[in-house]
Amino acid sequence: MSNEWKQIGTVLKSKDPSKGNYIKIKENVSLTAGDIVQIRDPRQSLESAVEAGRMSRDKADSILAKIPDFVLKELVLAPKK
Fold first, then answer.
1. Considering 11, 30, 39, 57, which has the largest number of Cβ atoms within 10 A of its Cβ?
2. What pTM was computed for the model?
């Protein structure tokens, strides 16, 4: 079993303001009862990596510039135990 958290989708802002946000799943994934999916802010994740010294500010800024405004959150599947 992998010990890595795996990004499986994103929460996106609807183009139509009268409709709610929606979830887009990026790849096939099977969920079973008890599985954990965390909702993360990708921008905050990058800031945390910079603060912890795991990523340079320049690299984080480069990635941040590529995240569209309509991407609100990312869905990350926890490793199976």
1. 11
2. 0.79
